[in-house]
Amino acid sequence: MPLTAESAAQQIQDRLKDIQQHIHKVDSERRRAENSIANLVRAQQSQAANPKLKTLLQAKILEATQEEATIRAALAKIHEIRNIRNERRIQARNAGNKEAIRRGALMKMVQLSAQTLPLFVGKPGERAPALCGAIPAESSYVAKVGDNVAALAKGIDEEENWILAEVVQFLHRQNKYDVIDIDEEQKDRHVLSKRKVIPLPLMRANPETDGHALFPKDTVVMALYPQTTCFYKAIVHRLPQTATEEYDVLFEDSSYLNGYAEPLPVAQRYVIAYRPTKKGAGSGSGNLSSA
Question: Which phi and psi angles does 269 have, rounded to 5°?
Answer without folding.
Answer: -60, -30
